[in-house]
Amino acid sequence: MLARCGWVNDDPRYQAYHDLEWGVPEYDSRALFEKLCLDGQQAGLSWFTILCKIPAYRAAFADFNPQLVATFDESDVERLMLDRGIVRNRLKIRSVITNARAYLLMQEQGIEFSHWLWDFVGGEPVINRWPTLNEVPTSTSESEAMARALKKRGFSFVGGTICYAFMQATGMVNDHLLSCPRHPDHVNS
Fold first, then answer.
1. Going by C-beta distance under 8 Å and a sequence separation of 6 or more, which residues neighbour residue 114?
2. Are 67 and 104 in contact (CB under 8 A)?
């Protein structure tokens, strides 16, 4: 019998995220930038907490427009520390600004963010075949390599575990369980 991956709760927002977004390959650089920043906000929290706050995050961070976010200064950090719609953690808020600046620097250097990220998985989704949640790793050598490379380029809140969650969410790695109707074995049949 097919059933959603065991980490999904009964909330319709979480189910829609699992069914329509998680594990679906994303190739748009700006969408990948947003997702990487949001995954960094998740550190120490559940993804569901951040998922419920995405509209507030988009409003707070100019729809994750790197050109705009990169101009934020300490007065913006203070303003965002008062925003009840987002996680009010100074380091996490600053990380989005830092990441926007790092993203723009890559653009200035002629590096296409999407291609650069997808190179960590050889440019194609890795399709895993996990029978149970206990077998799904929290990080891999690829996510650790991505984390090191992102940090070297000036990004923050991008450890190996965060990068693996990012890779799962953006379809670089498909970790839907074999028993899940969203696993490629079932979607493509």
1. 27, 28, 29, 32
2. yes
Dihedral sign, Cα of residue 80, residue 81, residue 82, residue 84 = positive
The pLDDT value given to residue 1: 82
C-alpha to C-alpha distances, 186 to 16, 134, 176, 177, 179, nearest whole angstrom: 18, 21, 11, 11, 9
* Every domain of the chain and the residues it spans: 26-187
CB 26 within 8 A of CB 171: yes
Determine if residue 65 is left, alpha or beta; phi over 0 gives left, psi from -120 to 50 gives alpha, anything else beta: beta
Quote the CA–CA distance of 9 and 189 in Å, as a whole number: 26
The Cα 153–Cα 122 span in angstroms is 20
Each residue of 127-157: pLDDT tens digit? 999 999 999 999 999 999 999 999 999 999 9
Binding region for Zn(2+): 5, 18, 176, 180
Backbone angles phi, psi at 173, to 5 degrees: -130, 130
Question: Can you say which residues are annotated as belonging to the binding site?
Answer: 5, 18, 176, 180
Q: Give the pLDDT confidence of 92-130 residue by residue, as tens digits.
A: 999 999 999 999 999 999 999 999 999 999 999 999 999
Extract the tokens encoding 66. 């790197």
Write the CATH number of the domain with boundaries 26-187. 1.10.340.30
Instruction: Report yes or no: 59 and 34 within 8 Å, Cβ to Cβ.
Output: no
